[in-house]
């Protein structure tokens, strides 16, 4: 099975990291190599531009691909969105000069909109029944309203800095995007594809979770359990050195609850509390 992943740009590093954490270690990647093997002999990685990945998957050059939802939509290919990987979060927005007359989508009627996403943009205006001209550019879209190339743009924003620097204001949201695992419809149910999706999901599910280990007085076990918000019940084990009074307790806790939980645990007699990260969580 082949997975297409971004070869450069902002999605490259986090994608490699999530694959590594899912246990799909990539072997001997010389920079800019097109293909790489993984520790799983059945899984090969194909490096491609984020924008080309939907095409690679649709054509069968790869079976699944990791890229932004914006890229999948722009490609127009029918792909199955298997999993949200939770990074590359951004919005495609309609934006126009701050001090101009465009304050709602309808104001663009009869005018020109520049974008790197012509298909998404045309679909958006078609759905709204707004007639405007869409011109495709390949970068620096934010400049076009200032050089009389366009009246408005449809472009990616996340922090809003680029729009602000270019004195553009958001008029409407066109699409909320994040990085997804996509499959070609004919392989979406393939056991190997499901195995990869499960492994990647386990990484996402482990994020923001911590594993707590502690000793607790056996007599206060119910109090200890009561303050552990964890998933399901905690694991309780006898302590090996034969101290009958103490048990070892392990639990998975939301990262945001760790601080309060430790305070509460101490107050019910827990000691030697260890907090560790979780690499994967297969539910
Ligand atoms: N500012 C941003 N914040 C979050 N996600 C973003 C942002 N810009 C782009 N993305 C996401 O990353 C994807 C690829 O963008 P990126 O800039 O990494 O690639 P690129 O511009 O195609 O790179 P290159 O031009 O170097 O090939 C976008 O399609 C979008 O899903
Ligand atoms: O809201 P912001 O946080 O400012 O992010 C938005 C900017 O990020 C992307 O550009 P990128 O940095 O990928 O540069 P590029 O145009 O070279 O792809 C996008 O094309 C916007 O220009
Ligand atoms: Mg970019």
From TrEMBL:
EC annotation? 2.4.2.17
The cofactor named in the record is: Mg(2+)
Source superkingdom: Archaea
Regions annotated as coiled coil: none
Gene3D superfamilies given for it?
Answer: 3.30.70.120, Periplasmic binding protein-like II (3.40.190.10)
Q: Which InterPro entries does the record match to this protein?
A: ATP-PRT_HisG_long, ATP_PRibTrfase_cat, ATP_PRibTrfase_CS, ATP_PRibTrfase_HisG, HisG_C, N-reg_PII-like_a/b, N-reg_PII/ATP_PRibTrfase_C
Ion transport as a keyword of this entry, yes or no, is no
Family, similarity comment: Belongs to the ATP phosphoribosyltransferase family. Long subfamily.
Record protein name field: ATP phosphoribosyltransferase
Its ancestry begins with: Archaea, Methanobacteriati, Methanobacteriota, Stenosarchaea group, Halobacteria
